[in-house]
Amino acid sequence: MHKTKLFALLITFLLFSFEAKAEGKRHGKLWRVSAAVLGAVTIADMHSSVGRMEANPLLQSSNGRFSNRGIALKGLIVGGALSAQWLLIRKNPNAAPYAAGINFAAAALTGAAVTHNHMLK
């Protein structure tokens, strides 16, 4: 569980560094909120999945469970996507609302997975 907390701390620092460099426009603010929501829901998903059987073969450890490997890969995927969006928004600020929409949709889908995981015994 300590690795999950460390990952949560790293995501928080990443989001604050994005916030410090992002433009202060309304759309940029919406994107920052969506990135924070996606980060929080991703952390909740990882927390609800640790030690359980993982359906995604990419995130499975050798015994088929979600563990350190899955945490690292999921963090890289979400962090990479947010980094790519940030670079895109720096070059084209008009893309911020579209990126925010993608982040909110991904957060909703991930939130459904969290709910599902908590309903399992």
What's this, in brief?
The protein is mainly α and 121 residues long. The protein contains 4 helices and no strands.
Features:
121 residues; mainly alpha; 4 helices
How would you characterize the overall build of this protein?
This protein is an all-alpha fold and 121 residues long. The protein has one domain. It is 76% helix and 0% strand. It is built from 4 helices and no strands. Helix 1 packs antiparallel against helix 2, helix 1 runs parallel beside helix 3 and helix 2 packs parallel to helix 4. It is elongated. The two termini are 19 Å apart.
Q: Helices and strands, in N-to-C order?
A: HHHH
Q: Any idea how many domains?
A: 1
Distance N terminus to C terminus? Answer: 19 Å
Helix content: over 70%
Protein topology:
Elements: H1 2-21, H2 26-49, H3 68-91, H4 96-119
Helix pairs in contact: 1-2, 1-3, 2-3, 2-4
